[in-house]
Amino acid sequence: MKYGHFDDENREYVITNPKTPYPWINYLGNEDFFSLTSNTGGGYTFYKDAKFRRLTRYRYNNVPVDNGGKYFYIKDGDTVWSPSWKPAQTALDSYECRHGMSYTKFKGSKDGIVTEVLQFIPLGFWGEIQQVTVKNTSSETKKIKLFSFVEWCLWNAEDDMTNYQRNLNTGEVEIEDSVLYHKTEFKERRNHYAFYSVNQAIDGFDTDRESFMGMYNGFDAPEAVLNGQPTNSVAHGWSPIGSHYIEIELQPGQEKQFVFMLGYVELEEENKWESKAVINKNPAKEMIAKYDSVQKVQVAFDELKEYWDQLLGKIQIDSGEDKLDRMVNIWNQYQCMVTFNMSRSASFFESGIGRGMGFRDSNQDLIGFVHQIPERARERIIDIASTQFEDGSCYHQYQPLTKKGNATVGGDFNDDPLWLILSTTEYIKETGDFSLLDELVPFDNDMSKAKPHFEHLKASFYHVVNNLGSHNLPLIGRADWNDCLNLNCFSKDPNESFQTTGNKKDGKAESLMIAGLFVVYGKEFVNLCLQIGKQEEASKAQGHIDQMIAAVKEDGWDGDWYLRAYDYYGNKVGSQENEEGKIFIESQGWCSMAGIGMEEGMVEKSLNAVKKHLDCDYGIVLNSPAFSKYYIEYGEISTYPAGYKENGGIFCHNNPWIMIGETLLGRGDQAYEYYTKIAPSFLEDISELHKVEPYVYCQMIAGKEAVKPGEAKNSWLSGTASWNFYTITQYILGVKPTYNGLLINPCIPKAWDGFKIKRVFRGVTYHIEVKNPVHVCKGVKELFVNGEKMNGNIVPVLSTNKEHTVLVVLG
Ligand code: GLC
Ligand code: GLC
Q: Which of 484, 483, 466 lies closest to 475, judged by CA?
């Protein structure tokens, strides 16, 4: 069952039934100021950090779901309704929510009144625009009442929902003309306030929640709205809100437009006040003036569209399959930009107060957006590397506001360092900018310990070499990529976190996943050394890689697949010998990608085993059989019920590793089949089961051992976005940046006749056409650049200011 449809031309998903199985959300904002917005108007706004600078309140985990938002109420006679259906929930004559690239449009109609709300954040601006258009399509004159509504959050989102003994006494507002100012804590240590304005005179307002709502009413039926009369309340002490009231008279066919703005202002200490206890409103007034007409709003909205044209225009495909095209051309790229901005902080499933920027997550996210915003990717790499320690280990997370490592979470996740080699080499291949390697980057944010960035990569590589266990395989530390495989943790206390406590000091467990990862990114390190003339460094590193390959063959192979690990006692994890968790996806993915034992048929056997034991209708599960009880020596993985999350769930982030492995074997049909099983646009028709948005990837789909296989959770903020984009474009469609040009090496379903792809690479546009006349999966037979036949399958870096055509014939 579907709840809407794709509008590819406008790059929108159009929701036509407001009762989606979960709130289906979108993100507004691209730099410092952001909003989340659901298909029924729910969501919130923050400046830079969703925990410390939250402007408006949202009620996570509420009953019913999705309460708190940027709301509008229309009172027409005795009927109260909302253009986004919620909060009023009055049945509408028509409803439509269009989620687009950094904007959302609602259109609701009732009894001859059509109301449209356009929400977006202009580029470089610290305010959200809500343009409201109200039109009378009936044949009578209409007198209606419009109420706006936001509920202010008292800035620190965590404190806001826990510290009521204080928070019910601190709320403060000011009101001037049509602008409602929120200034809680401004008189003390804050130098920022928020405001909510509208570009014309109002007929009343409310700023105190109890007065507006009534003590016993919900968002669906505020007392002031039911009465058709605001109370002009001024919040003192508690629960400040912002609500404008406007009386509108419309002749038949007439429409009126209003520009609301939800803004944020920061002031210098000396300029905070206009007079005693009166805030300096000048910056807010300047912001309001910037967009005080629909014409000005239109200009900003057009700029936003151009911004996205430019970002998405760097990779555009025409495959003949709409579902694939819309993922690659629009939604997957868009999601990668959202993960760049949000990391794992704020979504419907991430509360915005829990996690900072992950070291491994942010490095992996980068491979999804480096082609779109290379300069910002460079800055991000430096931020991440600055939190690394001199021995190559790193803080697992850092805070976006301070860019410092997060000491409470700590480090010792032994996969972390290697991801820095991934992000850095992908950045250089995309841009050709080797100067990053010479950039002085601190260790542990201490400039006195700064070294050229290259030394960070070396430290990453040798962190693995210097931390091997008794099988000469990498020690796992707290965990590797799988946060929940806690082999040195042995936790008995339900009050402690598996991620941060209880690790045995002599942690002996070893990881085959890190072994494969090391071989893949070790080779990248070697390749990079060769590019910059460090021959000796390269051959020394190659020696360590060869030893690792030997160790995997010696002690990491279980007969039909790669083991997953050795536990603290030296017992095998992910082996035929185990009763549960006999096979895991991560080591099959990484050791296959590393090509370990390719000649001996190990890669093929491993991937066949994945197909046999891990594949199901909805994707590839993480491990099988899932754990049915708690294994203290395995940790959090065994806490989840079978089929969920890391315990036998389809953890979409790691499915692409298997797809890449399949492409190395040349099995394009299999790779693509795995791709389509988890790509959201291919799941649109089963939205009632899948539940989350059909336009973005989710982290987890319930696996074959779950009660309801196929049910998904945790959409939007997941490494799934970047890995799937990377895999489909670079391994399946097979257009891959290298140091010396674009490698063209598709691995597609046999049945395809070919496809077209436009790729902007280092400022030059390539129009690539791939033809598949004899229906193979893989193998470039001929390659022509501007009509000229090339040797091999690399398109060299060509001059700028030019468009080039590339013809590729498979066979
Ligand atoms: C989550 C984490 C990521 C981890 C994965 C597997 O997605 O953000 O860092 O690798 O779970 O546990
Ligand atoms: C939980 C989740 C895992 C995530 C981790 C982050 O363990 O299951 O996916 O990576 O928390 O702290």
A: 466
Regarding the beta carbon of 537 and ligand 1, being less than 6 Å apart is answered no
- DSSP letter (8 states) at residue 632: T
Say if residue 532 is exposed, middle or buried (CB neighbours under 10 Å; 0-12, 13-18, 19+).
Answer: middle
Would you call 560 a catalytic residue per the annotation? no
> What is the predicted pLDDT for the residue at 723?
98
What's the token pair of residue 138? 């009936």
350-393 tens-digit pLDDT: 999 987 789 999 999 999 999 999 999 999 999 999 999 999 99
Q: How much is the pTM?
A: 0.97
Kindly tell me if the per-residue pLDDT of 513 is higher than 80: yes
- Asked whether the predicted pLDDT for residue 408 surpasses 90, the reply is no
End-to-end CA distance of the chain: 40
Out of 483, 634, 636, mutate this one to test ligand 2's pocket (max ligand atoms within 8 Å of CB): namely 483
Instruction: Indicate whether residue 481 lines ligand 1 (CB < 6 A).
Output: yes
Contacts of 213 (CB under 8 A, 6+ apart): 219, 222, 223, 224
Q: Name every residue whose Cβ is closer than 8 Å to that of residue 91 and which is 6 or more positions away in sequence.
A: none
Please tell me if the CB atom of residue 480 comes closer than 6 angstroms to any atom of ligand 2: no
DSSP state of 313: T
CB-based contact 720:677 (threshold 8 Å): no
Looking at the CA of 636, which ligand is closest?
2
Lowest mean pLDDT among 34-48, 170-184, 348-362, 675-689: 348-362
How many of the other CB atoms lie within 10 Å of CB of 289?
A: 11
Residues with Cβ within 8 Å of residue 657, at least 6 apart in sequence: 585, 586, 588, 589, 590, 592, 593, 723
Is there an atom of ligand 1 within 6 Å of 646 CB? yes
Looking at the chain, the whole-number percentage of residues with pLDDT higher than 70 is 100
Residue 760 and residue 260: Cα distance in Å, rounded? 38
Using alpha carbons, list the distances in angstroms from residue 386 to 19, 134, 572.
45, 51, 36
What's the rounded Cα separation, in Å, for the pair 5 and 208?
40
412, 483, 555, 558: the catalytic one is: 483
C-alpha of residue 387 to centroid of ligand 1, in Å = 19
Q: Is a pLDDT exceeding 80 seen at residue 801?
A: no
d(CA 154, CA 240): 9
Spacing, Cα 138 to ligand 1 middle (Å): 54
pLDDT at 137 over 80: yes
